[in-house]
Amino acid sequence: MVKLFFSILVVFIAFPYSILSQDSNNKIKGIKIAEDISSLKKYNSEKGIGKRYAIIIGINKYSDSGIASLSKARNDAKAIGKILKKNGAFDAIALMTDDADPNDTERLFPTKQNIEEKLNSFLARANPEDMFVFFFSGHGISNEKGEDFLITQNTSLEYKEASALPVNWVVEKFREKEISKLLLVLDACRETVYKSKSVQRIDVIPREFNEGSVSATFYSTSKGHYSYEDDESDFGVFTKYLIYGLEGQADTDDDGVVSFTDLKKFVEKGVMDWSRRKNKRNSYEQKPYTKIYNEETNGDLAITLAKRPKVSIADDNEYSRTWDEALKRSAMFPGLGQHFKKEKWKAYSFGFTGIFLLGALGSSYSKYQSSLSTYNAAGNTELMLSFATTDFGAANLFALSQTSSARSQVESASNQIATFSVVLLGVYIFNLVDAAIIKKPKKETSLLDLYPTDGFKLTYHRETQNSPAGNVEQGNFTQLEYIWTF
Prior knowledge:
CATH topology of the largest domain: Rossmann fold
Number of strands: 15
Number of helices: 11
Radius of gyration: 32 Å
Order of helices and strands: EEHEHEHEEHEHEEEHEHEEHHHHEE
Strand content: 15-25%
CATH class of the largest domain: Alpha Beta
Number of domains: 3
Structural class: alpha+beta
């Protein structure tokens, strides 16, 4: 799916010294700065770096039905949060996604109030030398004044400026605390906020982040270009290569850490290579853009350890889980293929059913063996009595009844074995068929798919804005359009 959005990675560093010991251009290849979390923490401490905090937000679905749902913003946030937690030596990480419990005491459900409270609580215990990462993936809007807002889960389009989270408010909070090391990532879709009509795209740079204050601004795409959701993974293209880079692929100088400079070069190359591979030409190309300020005085920033996992988070998704791999696992035991495909409820259903049927089959087989032994013993007794007596008496009758009863138990146990075997075979075959069915990747949509087809279209919406005099003005807008594609 094509998404036009502003994605800004801001590295805000006021101190003149580098977090790394040398400028990135002068680093000696292969000399390890840090190899594990403890050594990274020790290195930070030696360089005067305080604690590391992160607030990670991702929102797919909104309470206002007029706001279009997203499909991968939540995945973006969870992946970035997981990497920072595992590889970033962060002291505290708040992952706020819209699938969190709204009533949870941790207040991780991403409403405006919860985000504000979480940021305030982190800043209350922070010091100026601490480092912060603020990541937001979701919708964003701008007003006619050029002020930018992040659409939270409970934002109302009718009162969007009052209910959305102002970017300037977030920046000002860090400024008040004199936080000097800030990574601000705003990955906010701007072109499909409204279901009825898209808003005009405005390239965003927060007012406070002008030259002289900011070290770098990292955009997912340049002005006039597009930003895409990846058709081969569960993430946007920009986030996909951001994940690769933070995991360690960006550490080309092999010093053990991923710095901002490493990440910038890696993501730019990866995204542009993706565009060429997908035949995105000219303005349709996704072309990351980085604006560097004060490069002479501000150093590089160590973000994560370069762990280089065998399987990247970006690759562990429904598109990489092939049918043959799932089939192999389900052939070993029902449910393993579904677990491989991340279909948990199916995996549990097939797995528990398989365990139950195997247990029942084993119990029936044990009963069959016991009944068969009883039947053989009764038959031997009946045979011995027939040789010992010439007349068919009471003893012979009793032995015959015992043999008949034992035969019935054997037949019953045998029927149970047959029944459970057939059911288990059916479940096993159904499990194999289900494992081999892999959901096809969603067709990549172009920007044209966001617009209506030829013909008339009537749209209606309400807007609430502040007038120059400070009064709240409401307006009802009806628009009749005729679309003609040529």
